[in-house]
Amino acid sequence: MHGDLTGNILFADGHSPAVIDFAPYWRPASFGSSVVVGDALAWEGADESLLGAVEHVPSFPQFLLRALIYRIVVDALFRPGEPDRPDDDDCFLGPVELACRLAE
Predict the structure, then answer these.
(1) DSSP string, the chain
(2) What is the pLDDT of residues 14-60, one digit of tens each?
């Protein structure tokens, strides 16, 4: 899977999406889908309607929890000692609560 797919796709009218900055990771495909959904929920303003696009993904709720943990840890590691992001009190709170509800 691409390690950071959400921010590394270029879109242009009349052309297929182009994947850039390929960073391959060896993870289950379900994890890759979950990272993209988690990123969209936390950083791109997506809402729960996005879940319809991944209802076919095996074990999606569990993978979404893991994807969010991954992003939270990476965010903390790459921003040590920095203040909270000014655009949101906690961009992960809503997605984590949703993932917990789905995993029940």
Answers:
(1) -BTT-TTSEE--TTS--EE-S--B----HHHHHHHHHHHHHHHS---GGGGGGGTTSTTHHHHHHHHHHHHHHHHHHHSTTPPPPTT-S-TTHHHHHHHHHHH-
(2) 988 788 877 777 788 888 889 989 999 998 889 999 999 999 999 99
Q: What's the pTM value of the predicted model, to 2 decimals? A: 0.76
- 3: tokens are 């390690």
Write down the residue that tokens 């993870």 correspond to. 27
Terminal CA-CA length for the chain: 27
Structure tokens at 64: 């979404």
Q: Are 64 and 34 in contact (CB under 8 A)?
A: yes
Q: Compute CA distances 12 → 7, 37, 84, whole Å.
A: 15, 21, 33
Q: Is the dihedral of CA 93, 85, 75, 10 positive or negative?
A: positive
- Amino acid in the structure at residue 84: D
